[in-house]
Design brief:
With about 260 residues, the protein is of the alpha+beta class. About 25% of the residues lie in helices and about 30% in strands. It has one domain: Glutamine Phosphoribosylpyrophosphate, subunit 1, domain 1, CATH 3.60.20. It is globular and about 45 Å long.
Length: about 260
């Protein structure tokens, strides 16, 4: 299990997004309040944003976030209008290492997964591999359930140019539900194309991991929209994403919730 967060809105520093909030993602690495399957998120971290050419840029480290001596200077120096980040608690047998660090990225899309698939190598990995083209399977660099789920979504998008990101997420989750027989799956997924944020709060045969969002937090400028596994601030405008729902945040539209 892990903790994730995302920001969409006026340009802000990484420091404000990641470090400064009263219950920041940085703090959630060692003091999570709603983490049910671990005590710490000490198995690395990753940050994603879109650079001036609107291509994904990422910084990952397999060490605990509090041990990175470069992070304060990076956080003070980098600014963006969209941020995603995760602090990781690795699930056996998904070892720590750069190849298994999120976010994952491909064709302008970044992906995060907070959750797990029980007995993944026996329960779901083979079904996903059978579904993938040789090219997409060859692009998998690690061994996590998370990266294979991203590959599944990539395959759906590659097979249908008209498919939107939210449609791919719903179709992918429906396939996982069809293929899994017995094991538990916790499936809080987050996708972004650099324009919108798409996030699910979902589980099969288990309790959905926590997930919240806000469009009115007073600690951020007007127009800021955020998603996080745990509320980043003590502001009263954070609300839980309903279980088994997909949330879409768009800078020009009100939040949209779709039942899965």
């Amino acid at each position: 299990m892990c903790r994730l967060a995302a920001y969409l809105g006026p340009r802000i520093s990484l420091q404000q997004f990641l470090l400064e909030s009263s219950h920041s993602l940085y703090e959630q690495a060692w003091a999570p309040r709603e983490l049910k399957y671990a005590r710490l998120n000490a198995d690395g971290f990753g940050i994603g944003w879109y650079s001036v050419d609107r291509k994904p840029a990422m910084y990952v480290n397999q060490m605990p976030i509090w041990s990175d001596i470069n992070l304060p200077d990076l956080a003070r120096s980098l600014t963006a209008d969209l941020w995603v980040a995760m602090v990781r608690s690795a699930t056996s047998p998904f070892r720590s290492g750069p190849a298994n660090m999120q976010p994952f990225s491909h064709d302008g899309i970044m992906f995060l997964h907070n959750g797990l698939v029980e007995d993944f190598d026996r329960s779901l990995r083979g079904r996903i591999r059978h579904f993938l083209s040789t090219e997409i399977e060859a692009g998998i660099g690690g061994n996590t359930d998370s990266e294979y789920i991203f590959a599944l979504l990539r395959q759906l998008l590659a097979s249908d140019d008209a498919l939107t990101l939210d449609e791919a997420m719903r179709t992918g989750l429906a396939l996982i539900n069809e293929w899994l027989d017995g094991p538990k799956a916790l499936l809080n997924l987050l996708l972004t194309d650099g324009e919108r944020l798409y996030a699910t709060r979902h589980a099969l045969k288990g309790e959905c991991p926590s997930l919240y969002f806000t469009t009115d937090d007073e600690c951020f400028d007007e127009g800021a929209q955020l998603i996080a596994s745990e509320r980043l601030t003590d502001g009263e405008f954070w609300q839980p994403v309903p279980e088994h729902h997909l949330l879409i945040l768009d800078p020009n539209e009100p939040p949209e919730l779709i039942r899965l």
